[in-house]
Amino acid sequence: MSNTIASLSRQIQSAGELESVVRTMKALAASSIGQYEQSVRSLADYYRTVELGLSVCIRSHPNTNHDHPRESKTIGAIVFGSDQGLVGQFNDIIADYAIKTLATLPGKPQVWAVGERVHARLGDAGLSMAGKFIVPNSVKAITSLVAQIQIQSESHRVKGDYQQVYVFHNRPQTGSLYEPVSQRLLPLDEIWQHSLTKIPWPTKIIPEVLNDLPATLRALIREYLFISLFRACAESLASENASRLAAMQRAEKNITELLNHLHGSFHRLRQISIDEELFDVVSGYEALMR
Questions:
Q1: Domains plus CATH for the chain?
Q2: pTM for this predicted structure
């Protein structure tokens, strides 16, 4: 009986330590969600400014050709996943979504994966993997990652390896929910131009582009692509931590239930032990009184 009580005591101690770790990870995940969501919100005004600038440039020269298509049957894809575990179905959801979406597009996909786990998942599905990037661990590290992606993707695009580029990532929803989404980054075709020309200017005075219009347009396009990738990465990281937070909440609930069960068993065994000791004392007393 004493060995069983000792064993339960060790289990209670281990579960308590695990609960402390889970609570710490839960707090870190909640804090990370806030910083990544804030970074996305901070991009909104700048993104709006870049869109307005592009609309002015395109209105000034509506026939400007921003895309120089070459014959290519390959589609470039960037998929944001995770490097770490404890994220539930996070990687499976975005990987399955990317696989199904790319299967509907004409052309052979060539994929860059952001994250070790989603890279393995996509590779196992038979997709051609062009490269792998490390998931940033802070908002500041996103800029470096986006720069690497732009350099790699642009070098292949200039060579004519492909002209279409898609980005796939999970986008956070209300609470700890998220959904997989995709965006076509390239080519910047007539549909893209037409959508920008429909953006209303916020004042009655329509601006004009001075000096070098092509250089201004190229600079704005670079910013447009940078913001699109930065936002995709930040939203993916927010979703990853939301998934981790939900996993930690489930783990915390399970640990609490386990601790309640262990404490109940411990107290029952302890009471049985006390009752047996009292019974031995009473039996010994009665034997002495005879």
A1: 2-26+249-289 (1.10.287), 28-245 (3.40.1380.10)
A2: 0.79
